[in-house]
């Protein structure tokens, strides 16, 4: 599956951004979709994920209550709504896809988008 992420940018602390990821090439509704991020000098970390139907979602503790993941299986898209952004949210955000169960391990995801930069200024 091919993934194309968009929507990153520069925002002040406390602000909001919405990231989007468009998928093509496979049956989107069969895919578990996730968002990960990577800050400079750090490993890629899990942010959020949603099961194929979108009914169940999973979040990293650091973003619970601030971020929300949505998917639209009719449009083959998954979005990440980010609110109350903090400087520590800065990084390159990647969407990822896998078959099977929803997991938080990056290595378990088979397909990755190119990443979109999010910078939160203090």
Notable traits:
0% helix, four-stranded antiparallel beta sheet, 122 residues, mainly beta, single chain, 50% strand, seven-stranded mixed beta sheet
The amount of helix comes to: under 10%
Number of strands: 11
Structural class: mainly beta
Query: Can you tell me the residue ranges where pLDDT is under 50 for at least 5 consecutive residues?
Result: none
Mean of pLDDT: 96
**CA gyration radius, whole angstroms:** 13 Å
Distance between the termini: 37 Å
Compact overview of the structure:
0% of the residues lie in helices and 50% in strands. It is globular and about 40 Å long.
Question: Helices, strands, pairings?
Answer:
Layout: E1 2-6, E2 9-12, E3 17-24, E4 32-38, E5 45-50, E6 57-59, E7 67-72, E8 77-82, E9 91-98, E10 111-112, E11 116-121
Parallel strand pairs: 2-11
Antiparallel strand pairs: 1-3, 3-8, 4-5, 4-9, 5-6, 7-8, 9-10, 9-11
Account of the 3D structure:
The chain has 122 residues and is mainly beta. It is 0% helix and 50% strand. The protein contains no helices and eleven strands. It has strands at residues 2-6, 9-12, 17-24, 32-38, 45-50, 57-59, 67-72, 77-82, 91-98, 111-112, 116-121. The termini are far apart.
